[in-house]
Structure formats: C-alpha cells, structure tokens
Design brief:
Blueprint (H helix, E strand, L loop, with lengths): L4 E6 L6 H11 L3 E3 L2 E3 L13 E3 L2 H9 L3 E7 L2 E6 H9 L3 E5 L2 H10 L4 E6 L3 H11 L4 H15 L7 E4 L3 H16 L8 H8 L4
Parallel strand pairs: 1-7, 1-8, 2-7, 3-4, 8-9
Antiparallel strand pairs: 3-6, 5-6
The protein binds guanosine-5'-monophosphate.
Length: about 200
C-alpha cells in the first residue's frame, strides 16, 4: 500500500514551517525531509547538512548548470533549491518526501509532478506572524521587513495549493497534516488497478 510521493509545505516566514515539520518527523518514520541547498548564511543554531547544505553562490550556480536541482528560487535575497537525486531515490523507495519550500518552488513542482501534495501553512493572525519573525531574533530589521512584506505576496498563491493548515498550536497543525496524508494515501489515483489487485492478487497495492 505504501507509495511514495512529494509533500510540499509552504507558508510565509514565521508561519512555523520548521517547527511543524520537525514535530511531524518526530511522530512519523515514513516521512523523509529533503534538506535544501542555500546560499544564505547559517543562523547560529544551524548545522550544515541538517538544516541546509550551505553553499556559495558559485557552487549553487554550478548545480543549476548541471541540472542537479528539482526546483530552485531566489527568496529574500538568497538562492534556495531542492536536490533532485536524493528526492527521486526516496520516492522510489516508497517514502513520503517533505519539501519545505517557498511558493515559487512549489509552482515549479506543480507543473512537473501531478501527484505531489501541496499544503500552505498559515499563521493564526498577521500580528502573530510579525511577532514570530521579530521574536526569532536571528534577522536584521531590514530582513524582518522583507520577510513580512513577502508574506503578503506569498498569500496571493494560497489558491494554488491543495490544503491549508493553520498553525496556532503546533500539535493541532501536525494532526491536520497527518489527516491529509491519511486521505492522500487512500486516493484511488495513487493505486494501480484496485479491483484487479483485490481479485487476482488478493491484496490492494
Ligand atoms: P529561511 O531562510 O527562513 O530558512 O527560508 C526562507 C524561505 O526559503 C522559506 O520560505 C523556505 O521555505 C524557502 N526555502 C527553503 N528551502 C527551499 C528550497 O529548496 N526551494 C525553495 N524554492 N524555497 C526554499
């Protein structure tokens, strides 16, 4: 029954994508996080190879040239991209691969992969969003303003997504995502011929 697929999670800076994905991964072992590549500077608590693969602009551009990225985008003055080979290998193994990416990247994936699932994470209010970005304390004031104004632009794209989840309480947001995954696993189009499998093979694959 286990078929791999791409689970795309987007949402403005401060919506809590990182926290929610981490909590989700702690509860499930059938979800693999795709570590992105970025040219942004690491934050003090970030580890290379865990949060991101931190690269120079030249290294990143080389990867684009070599077609090593599934999608990439220029977000808040830095490049971010998804490594292609890793994602394909994991999907092939039947895993759900979680991509925590911005709307531009999500739109690129949507064009190429019809079976990907798209979730937009929302803050409970815009005031709360601003508060979370400021309280994180890792960005300069200019960065905070860029991220907050980008949030308004990103919200224009919520209609391109399959589902929205409100991150008021992390636990509830994680439960909502788990419900989405459960429903997606039962989508008829994700399975080969159900009748044939049940009758001839004796089980639904
Ligand atoms: P941050 O700098 O806060 O870690 O991330 C900034 C934005 O870049 C977030 O919206 C995050 O989802 C997005 N992002 C992270 N990795 C990728 C990626 O591989 N591709 C794209 N398109 N966006 C990404």
């Amino acid at each position: 029954m286990s078929k791999g697929f791409l689970l795309v999670l987007s949402g403005p800076s401060g919506s809590g994508k990182g926290t929610v994905s981490q909590a989700l991964m702690e509860r499930r072992n059938d979800i693999i996080f795709s570590t992105s590549i970025t040219t942004r500077q690491p934050r003090p608590n970030e580890v290379d190879g865990e949060n991101y693969f931190f690269k120079t602009k030249e290294e990143f551009e080389k990867m684009v040239e070599n077609d090593e990225l599934l999608e990439y985008a220029y977000v808040h003055t830095n490049y971010y991209g998804t490594p292609k080979e890793f994602v394909f290998n994991e999907i092939e193994k039947g895993e759900i691969v979680l991509l925590e990416i911005d709307v531009q990247g999500a739109l690129q994936i949507k064009k190429k992969y019809k079976k990907a699932v798209f979730i937009f994470l929302l803050p409970p209010t815009m005031e709360e969003l601003k508060k979370r970005i400021v309280n994180r304390g890792t960005e300069t004031e200019a960065d905070i303003n860029t991220r907050f104004s980008n949030a308004f632009k990103e919200l224009d794209f919520v209609g391109e997504y399959d589902y929205f989840v409100v991150n008021d309480r992390v636990e509830q947001a994680v439960k909502d995502i788990e419900n989405i995954i459960a429903a997606e696993r039962l989508r008829v189009k994700r399975h080969d011929d159900i009748k044939k499998n049940l009758i001839e093979e004796g089980e639904i694959r």
